[in-house]
TrEMBL record:
Its EC number is 6.1.1.7. Pfam families: tRNA-synt_2c (PF01411), tRNA_SAD (PF07973). It comes from Candidatus Falkowbacteria bacterium RIFCSPLOWO2_02_FULL_45_21. GO terms for molecular function: alanine-tRNA ligase activity; aminoacyl-tRNA deacylase activity; ATP binding; tRNA binding. This is alanine--tRNA ligase. Residues 1-623 form the Alanyl-transfer RNA synthetases family profile domain. One of its GO terms (biological process) is alanyl-tRNA aminoacylation.
Length: 623
């Protein structure tokens, strides 16, 4: 039972139940400031769960690409991954618990082929103080489904010391079986919807309780104990309550949100508790075996390293290969990508992988394995490979030196703690993210003074900002006429770049003297000769058109609403200046500028090169 088949069976099954099948949203969320990646199947659907009408109707289903950066530290066991696919189905005020639980039970047992005797469920215990009853309705529906399958289904009020108690359906409190955007019912603000949920667990057998030296092996076993025996494979959320001044009220129509991990359902369908042994990872693991000369499963340390490499580079392929893809950098999403690549490279070194630029081979396999489902990976793979090669080469240059320096530091430690200054030295001189230093330290039973590292980093950033501010005001050498002209040309350059390369291009910095302009912008690939020529032509046409340069003062919000572009917005005051060159360019800026583009002369790009990962640099002149 391949994961590809399970994915298609799921979508076909819910299509047969009247659901519209929608495409996966991007891993890079749009208009969602709460998170930097799409981390669940629910995330893109939240507006519709809160009342907005979905264009596809009231019953929808999909397979959603997801990435959770918070799971990076957990990678290495047999069930956690940073990237995963969530199979989802939603009822937006349409069907409710009876249909949902019956359909999921049918899909798992009849379609995916899971044996009913290996399925366990948890439901909400209720909270009498808040007036929320126990979810006996869900438990009753599940008992009926098990009865149809010929199995008794005892319900048990969970107690940590009680173990399984021959139970099949377990009542847990709101820490496990309640969903809202704010967590437990008591944390929800008035006017917020939420409700109980029903989690599904697969039993790999009592022998799994001692799997991988489980610390739980001597404790009473239950479905949520993480001993290795049970794996959560899905969860149905019943959004049926609204918090009001009078307490929790039933909504007239409830919503259903189901999310099931494809990787975990595939593991259950194949009776394989290690998801890295399913077809979603086997090609990647085989390639890592070839590269390293090691065998998966032969050594616990090497097995963990293989899992980390396979997971991280698969995630990199999906994040960088997304149509809104992100290149490695030192900020936000780019930092996460860089961290994944560097961890993979470090564990590759631990496995003695010698081949240069080997990481790209893993991403190529990922693109091939998912080509029929996510064709954007194939379309963007060359860009991914190019960026990955650069990042790997850059990090490898410093990794060996950094590891030697790390060994020197730890060999001279008086105690068991690496100072913040030492950790910052590794960061600044050898490109070691704090997380890598912390991992290396843990392997030597050492700690890192994280607080002191943060203080050192903050001090360094403040000094850098002060130095930059003292060098050139606004990136300009002076206010002379040549500088004004080149500064105005820089505005035209950004507008032209966004036309030729796409509207994700943004300014990343500039430095302008009387002789030339140097301009940094976000873009993940080297510009072609044709693209450079197109940009030049657009700028020179704007100059030829003799566009008037106008300035308006407005609030920052008004400037954003008007479509003006700008960087470092936090430095601007309440009122900002917006300079426009006709309809061609509009930017938040402090000046100075010429009065008309016709004053500029001929614009010529002298050089286009890399500035840093995901950032390109143009040097240009006016002739």
């Amino acid at each position: 039972m391949t994961a590809k088949k399970i994915r298609q069976l799921y979508l076909d099954f819910f299509r047969s139940k009247g659901h519209a099948i929608i495409a996966s949203a991007s891993l890079i969320p749009e208009n969602d400031p709460t998170t930097i990646f799409t981390g669940s199947g629910m995330q893109p659907i939240v507006p519709y769960l809160l009342g907005e009408k979905h264009p596809a109707g009231s019953k929808i289903a999909d397979a959603q690409k997801c990435f959770r950066a918070q799971d990076i530290e957990e990678i290495g066991d047999n069930r956690h991954t940073t990237f995963f696919e969530m199979l989802g189905n939603w009822s937006l005020g349409d069907y409710f618990k009876k249909e949902q639980l019956a359909w999921i039970f049918e899909f798992l047992t009849k379609q995916a082929g899971l044996e009913p005797e290996n399925l366990y469920f948890t439901v909400f215990r209720g909270n009498p103080e808040l007036g929320i009853p126990r979810d006996d309705e869900a438990a009753g529906i599940l008992k009926a489904e098990f009865k149809r399958a010929g199995l008794p289904a005892k319900t048990v009020d969970f107690s940590e010391n009680g173990g399984l108690q021959d139970g099949r359906i377990f009542y847990y409190d709101e820490t496990k079986n309640w969903w809202s955007r704010f967590g437990a019912p008591a944390n929800m603000p008035k006017g917020e919807p939420g409700g109980p949920d029903c989690e599904i667990f697969y039993d790999f057998g009592a022998a799994r309780q001692i799997h991988e030296n489980s610390p739980f092996k001597h404790n009473p076993c239950h479905v949520n104990c993480d001993c290795g025996r049970f794996m959560e494979i899905g969860n149905s959320v019943f959004m049926q309550y609204l918090k009001t001044d009078q307490g929790f009220k039933r909504l007239p129509k409830g919503n259903i949100d189901f999310g099931g991990g494809l990787e975990r359902i595939a593991a259950a369908a194949n009776q394989e508790p290690d998801i890295f042994q399913t077809d979603l990872f086997t090609h990647l693991i085989f390639k890592i075996e070839q590269l390293s000369g090691k065998t998966y499963g032969a050594d616990q340390g090497m097995t963990k390293a293989m899992r980390i490499i396979a997971d991280h580079l698969k995630a990199v392929a999906f994040i960088m290969g997304d149509d809104r893809g992100v290149a490695p950098s030192n900020t936000d999403r780019g930092y996460v990508v860089r961290r994944l690549i560097r961890r993979a490279v470090r564990f590759g070194r631990q496995m003695d992988i010698k081949e240069p630029s080997w990481t790209k081979e893993i991403t190529k396999i990922t693109a091939h394995d998912y080509l029929s489902v996510y064709p954007e990976l194939g379309k963007n793979i060359n860009k991914v490979v190019e960026e990955l090669e650069k990042e790997e080469v850059k990090f490898k240059k410093t990794l060996e030196q950094g590891l030697k320096e790390f060994e020197k530091i730890t060999s001279q430690l008086a105690g068991k703690k690496i100072s913040g200054q030492q950790a910052f030295y590794l960061y600044q001189s050898y490109g070691f993210p704090l997380e890598i230093t912390a991992e290396l330290a843990e392997e030597k039973n050492c700690l890192v003074d994280v607080e002191a590292f943060s203080a050192e980093l903050k001090k360094h950033q403040e000094l850098s900002r002060t130095a930059s501010a003292g060098k050139f005001k606004g990136g300009l050498a002076d206010s002379s006429e040549p500088v004004k002209k080149l500064h105005t040309a820089a505005h035209l350059l950004l507008a032209a770049l966004r036309i030729v390369l796409g509207d994700t291009v943004a300014q990343k910095g500039s430095n302008i003297t009387a002789e030339r302009l140097r301009y940094d912008f976000s873009y993940g690939a080297k510009m072609t000769a044709e693209q450079i020529q197109q940009v030049e032509q657009l700028v020179n046409q704007a100059i030829k058109d003799g566009l008037p340069i106008t300035c308006q003062e407005m609030s920052l919000e008004q400037a954003k609403e008007s479509g003006a572009h700008g960087i470092f917005e936090s430095k601007y005051g309440e009122k900002v200046k917006v300079y426009s060159a006709g309809d061609f360019s509009k930017e938040i800026c402090g000046g100075p500028h010429v009065n008309n583009t016709g004053e500029l002369g001929r614009f010529k790009i002298k050089k286009e090169e890399s500035s840093s990962a995901g950032v390109r640099r143009i040097k240009a002149v006016l002739e």
